[in-house]
């Protein structure tokens, strides 16, 4: 099966997620216009492919950083903040980013397997938590290695 892995950055929503931890999406709440257009405004829950997610979890767990797996929010109003993150935190959301819901939606529609792994570079609502450029660059290097290693693991499984 053809595979798509989104590897990028996110903001930490869950209290247990620290800056520079890795977050792996199992699904993503679509608060983005792109996903709404693909599903014609109908309710939809974009989910990641289980095999891709499992490969990402296995590879990330072998590393030296904390790894969190769970629900993301995909939000395309990047600078919109406010107090709504407490509501999403209470609903079990661990991170926010901009693309996962749309990628999962398109992948499901096209018969592709998709997953998402991100590096938490800040905590929503706390601008002073932004990780430094060098720390982010090092984290992104590790993130990309994990994404590539996950693809290799999937190939070895015959997925």
- CATH class categorisation: Alpha Beta
Low-confidence stretches: none
What's the gyration radius in Å?
15 Å
Oligomer: single chain
Order of helices and strands: EEHHEHEHEH
In spatial order, strands of the major sheet run 1-4-3-2-5
Separation, N- and C-terminal Cα atoms:
6 Å
In total, how many domains does the architecture comprise?
1
- Global morphology: globular
Please give the number of β-strands.
Answer: 5
CATH topology: Rossmann fold
Q: What's the rounded overall pLDDT mean?
A: 92
Question: Explain this structure to me?
Answer:
Helices cover 38% and strands 28% of the residues. It is α/β, with parallel strands linked by helices and 159 residues long. The protein has a single domain, classed as 3-Layer(aba) Sandwich (Rossmann fold). The longest helix is centred in the C-terminal third of the chain and has 25 residues, at 133-157. It is globular, with a radius of gyration of 15 Å. The model has no long low-confidence stretch (mean pLDDT 92).
Keywords:
5 helices; Rossmann fold; alpha/beta; 159 residues
Question: Could you give the topology of this structure?
Answer:
Layout: E1 3-12, E2 22-31, H1 33-38, H2 50-61, E3 67-75, H3 84-90, E4 93-97, H4 100-110, E5 113-123, H5 133-157
Parallel strand pairs: 1-5, 2-3, 3-4
Antiparallel strand pairs: 1-4, 2-5
Explain briefly what this protein structure is.
The protein is an alpha/beta fold and 159 residues long.
